Amino acid sequence: MTDEQPPTRGVHTRAVHGPAPDPNLAAQAGTPMAAPLVRSATYAFASLDAMLAADHLGPAGAFYQRDGHPTVHATERRLAALEGAEAALLFSSGMAAISSLLLSLLAAGDKVVALRQVYGGTRTLLDWGRDRLGWRVEEVDAREPEAWEGVLDGARVLHVESPTNPTLCVVDLARAAELAHRHGARLTVDNTFASPVGQHPLALGADAVVYSATKSIGGHSDLLAGAVAGPAALVEEVWRARTTFGGMADPDTAWLIARSLKTLPMRVERQNANALALARRLERHPAVAAVFYAGLERHPGHAVARGQMTLGFGPVLSFDVRGGAAAAQAVVEGCALIHHAPSLGSIETLIVLPAHTSHRRLGPEGRARAGIPEGLVRLSVGIEDEADLWADLERALERARG
Ligand SMILES: *Cc1c(COP(=O)(O)O)cnc(C)c1O
């Protein structure tokens, strides 16, 4: 192909083909500071051999977008480096990542043990696997790790989160890995709440780590994506599931994630510092019955969290408002700066009522059993000035009390 098009070609041909993009454009202009955004779903090859060679690269190749893509690869390499993983994959959502991971590790009839406190979408996936694939699903409670040993026999996977939603229970990840491996199971960790820079499950013995990149990784409430990281051999299996089910990330989103990753440590550090400061203030407020945050010394998971988390204790905290559900609703509705919205890990502070969002389906008895008070408010703390956040919360708490 050349840039000069024969003038004899018709308008339709010229409209479709145009001048060929120069694959070395970037190199001619020096090294680009930002990774080039390639928005091409397929690639042209000069020979069959060249095409087959690209196809044979598997997860590392760029043959057709669902299989692999240069902009997506660039972000995957950046994420793997930050994570300290051999390989990483991006997905179209956190649930695409979690389902590809579990479907690649679990065959029909396999046993999987998961935390009772796992994300609702993961719970739905496990129910689906039980109904459609005969997965034997066992639950364990994050608050009772002594009981885990008894159910791990014959399990293929132990799937956990730490800290958990919405009451921020802490799982000792090194201990969970040791326990899983002793029973021949793999440990998978949904590390969304801590983020890739706030906790390193692979270094603590986990076999794979999975993310909703919609949260801290993206960090600006403007994209939906997921990620899996781990050893290359395991990631290749997950890649097969991604290619089969089609949960590939698109290049624009991957490019935005590469941009977001550059500020991830700075955002997480500040979010976590703000969260700890607000948790301490909330603890002393007369309208608050209890605060759930692993950064507080009297939280049962504090010592473990301090040992396994870095840059602080995560951006999410929750608190029980005196006066129950009505008072909690008044707090959420009384906030002006803080937005009443689901999601977490973003630069802006978000507030929700778990009894009406993530844990609605449990009902009051189910929530009581799960240790979720009816007056619980969950806060995902952003990077604003802490004094402004506190002023907003304090005003809302006073109004709720009055
Ligand atoms: C949001 C979330 C998910 C699901 O991610 P999506 O990007 O919404 O598909 C999974 N796990 C946790 C812990 C989450 O917070």
Explain what you see.
The chain is globular, with a radius of gyration of 23 Å. The longest helix is centred in the C-terminal third of the chain and has 20 residues, at 264-283. The protein has a seven-stranded mixed β-sheet. Strands 8-9-12-11-10 form a five-stranded mixed β-sheet. It starts with 10 loop residues before the first helix and ends with a helix. It has helices at 11-17, 25-28, 48-56, 70-83, 94-105, 120-133, 173-182, 232-245, 251-261, 264-283, 302-308, 324-334, 363-369, 386-401, and strands at 87-91, 111-115, 136-140, 157-161, 186-190, 208-212, 226-230, 288-292, 316-321, 339-340, 350-352, 376-380. It has 402 residues and is an alpha/beta fold. Pyridoxal-5'-phosphate is lined by residues 93-95, 119, 121, 161, 190, 192-193, 212, 214-215, 224, 226.
Helix content: 25-40%
Q: CA-to-CA gap between the ends?
A: 74 Å
Principal-axis shape: globular
The tally of beta strands, per DSSP, is 12
Rounded Rg: 23 Å
Kindly report the average pLDDT value. 94
Low-pLDDT stretches: none
Number of helices: 14
**Structural class computed from helices and strand pairing:** alpha/beta
Strand percent estimate: 5-15%
Which ions and ligands are bound to the chains?
Answer: pyridoxal-5'-phosphate
Strand order of the largest sheet: 1-7-6-5-4-2-3
What is the ordering of alpha helices and beta strands? HHHHEHEHEEHEEEHHHEHEHEEHEH
**What's the main sheet like?**
7 strands, mixed
